[in-house]
Amino acid sequence: MEQQENKSYQELHKPASEFESRSDYLDHELQIMQPKRWGINLPFRDFRFEWEDLVPAIAGTIGIIAMYSAVMMAWADGLSAKWEHIQLGKDFAIEVARVEMLIPALLFCVLASGVFNPRANLAGNHGPMIPLIGAIALAGAHPLALAILLGIFGLLLSYFKGGSKLVNLTSEGVAGGLLVFLGFTGAMSMIGNIQDWAVGLESAEAGVAAGEMGYVGLVVLGVTVILYAVLARLGKRWLAIPACAITGLLIALAFGAGFDLRFETEMGLPNLNPMYWWGSTEQGWMLGLPTVSHFIASLPFALLAVAMWSPDFLGHRIFQELNYPKNSERVLMDVDDTMTACSFRQMVGTAVGGGNITSSWGTYMIPAAIAKRPIPAGAILLGLLTMIVAVLGFPMDVAVWPPVMRVALLVGVFLPLLEAGMQMIRNEKDAQAAGICVFAAAVTNPVLAWALTMLLDNNGWIGDKERPKKLSKLDRLVIPGSVLLICLAAMLAVGMLEPKYAIPALL
């Protein structure tokens, strides 16, 4: 082992033909990589490209198109409702999404995660914050003010190693319960969305009335389940996103749902001048530069977004731990480095005209971990692919079509989350902590549930009663208690509990 550590990746690399199986070759690649943190990592010297890297790259591209489009439309609707002089629509949302897919992809996929720090997962989208964007806009927040605050808070948490500390304080039972809840609720949401799309199909030209093609959704879902099961049986689950998404597309077209697919996005570059987007109240976002009031309105939402990072990052790292072989710790995602990358990406991406709220890129990391691939090669491919799609335009229309986008998220994110959560629940103690976490998440939301069950579990009130003996008072009470109070205060401030319990926002 010592001799191996003294050799470089190039010296330790062996061709795939020398291994009994492809899986053994991929395991060996993970074990011999020696990525440099915030240094220069070069293809073929420090890592290699494999055809398996295309799968997470394609999956991440499909996921990010869908997420970015949803974020920008939510901003457009919220700001248009808040301000009389602002009228933003689909064209605005697509242009901003394409800005986000160009500059940040180059800087933070190709360069940051691909070259300078392969242990920092790609900075993608903060999915749980999307439903809140309307409330953020109506509260008088400004996307650029929110980005600056979120970036500052994220850098502080990263500098003090807060992210990795919270991950280490989360037991397998709590983490398993969190993943089970997120996987199950997400899967049910995707199934409902596909069926709603199919039932809503109508076309006067095709002679189809609403409700007549509901069976298309059932066929798409049925074939998806069978194909996913076959891939799992063959040990090829990492192919699930492209295989199932393409199959969903072909089935929908074969059953005559193609009249619902519109190619409206033209080829070209968006406006890449930051002053166009933020320079005045007559163009771009039509908001101008942020003022003090914008920062005040954005503050609780920025705190909430950063508080939600740790459970998000935890879920992604777990997939690597479950799928990577022993002695591959050097290529595991570093939570604090990922927070650093996400913080800079948040500020830079929004400064150039974007509006995304960022987090660890799940639609990339989950299939990459299942495919037993490290971060850098896929990150470079994903960055290049994302920029190509942003320029071409029309692939965005295909990727956001429900039988493609919803199926991709279902098999690439939510079903693997559910499976990983179940794998982590190994005994009665884990099951108890997981059960309480699921229950608390159903009553409130996953973030508050994670904070609460972490506090209960670390003090032996649920789960393993011996766990508190291994932890200091700081780890048992101070840190979990502070996290719970911060999450609760931020949620009460922004009204996140209002929909369920009619508790209005404090601010």
UniProtKB/TrEMBL annotation:
InterPro entries, per database record: DUF3360 (IPR021794)
Swiss-Prot/TrEMBL keywords: Membrane, Transmembrane, Transmembrane helix
One Pfam family this sequence matches: DUF3360
Regions that span the bilayer: 54-75, 136-160, 172-194, 214-231, 238-259, 285-309, 375-394, 400-421, 433-456, 476-497
Name this protein carries in UniProt: Membrane protein
Organism: Neiella marina
